[in-house]
Amino acid sequence: MEFLTEHKGREAEIIDLFTLAFTVSEGEEEGELIGKLVRNLLDGTAEKDLFVFTADEDGTVIGGIIFSRLTYEQDERILFILAPVAVAPHQQRKGIGQRLLTHGLAALRRAGVDIVITYGDPSYYAKVGFVPISEADAQAPMPLSRPEGWLGQSLTHRAMAPLKGPSRCVEALNNPVFW
Ligand SMILES: CC(C)(COP(=O)(O)OP(=O)(O)OC[C@H]1O[C@@H](n2cnc3c(N)ncnc32)[C@H](O)[C@@H]1OP(=O)(O)O)[C@@H](O)C(=O)NCCC(=O)NCCS
C-alpha cells in the first residue's frame, strides 16, 4: 500500500470510492450525497484550501481522506477540517483508515497547519488524537445536529481552544445537510 497526495486526473476513482463506502454503510442516498460532496470539494476548492490523501494498492484507490480550510476570521492560526473519510468496504477493519489518518495529519503538521477539526464518531477519531471541543470554544460554521461529534486536535504545542470568532468553511461544505 502507498499513500498518494496527487488527486488530479484521479477524481472519478476517488469519488467512486467515497460513493461506494457510504452507500454500503449508510445507504444509497447518503452515498450519492457524499459522492457529490467529494466532487464539489475536488472540483470547486482552491488548491491552497485543500489536502487530499489516498491509500492505493496495485494502482487502485482503497482509501481516501480530505481536509479543507476552516477559517476563524479573528484567529490567525491555520485550521483545516477533516471530512469525509472512506475505506473501500472489502478493505475495512485492517487499520487502513487509521494509517491514512496518521499519515495525513503528519503531512498537515509539516505543512504548518495548527489545528485540525473534524465532525464524526468520537470513539473512532479518538484513536488518532481527536478530542471533543465545545461550540463555545470553537464555533462551527453552521448549527450542529450532533454537537458531541465536534472534535479537534492541535498539531502544535499550543492549546487548541478557544478559537476566536465565527468560522467559515469552503463552499462545498457550506450546506446544512452536512452539519
Ligand atoms: C470509518 C472507516 C473510514 C474506517 O476505516 P477502516 O480502515 O475500516 O478503519 P481502521 O481499520 O483503521 O479502524 C480502526 C478502528 O476503528 C474502529 N472502526 C473501524 N470501522 C468501524 C466501524 N464501521 N464502526 C465502528 N468502529 C469502527 C475499530 O474499533 C477499529 O479498531 P479495531 O481494529 O481495534 O477494531 C470505514 O469503515 C468507512 O469507510 N466507513 C464508511 C464511511 C464512513 O463512515 N466514514 C466515516 C465518516 S466521515
From TrEMBL:
Record domain N-acetyltransferase: where: 1-147
SUPFAM superfamilies, per the entry: Acyl-CoA N-acyltransferases (Nat)
PROSITE patterns per record: GNAT
Keywords noted in UniProt: Transferase
CDD domains in UniProt: NAT_SF
Single GO MF annotation: acyltransferase activity, transferring groups other than amino-acyl groups
Alphabetized PANTHER family for the sequence: L-AMINO ACID N-ACETYLTRANSFERASE, UPF0039 PROTEIN SLL0451
Full protein name: N-acetyltransferase
Taxonomic source organism: Thiorhodococcus mannitoliphagus
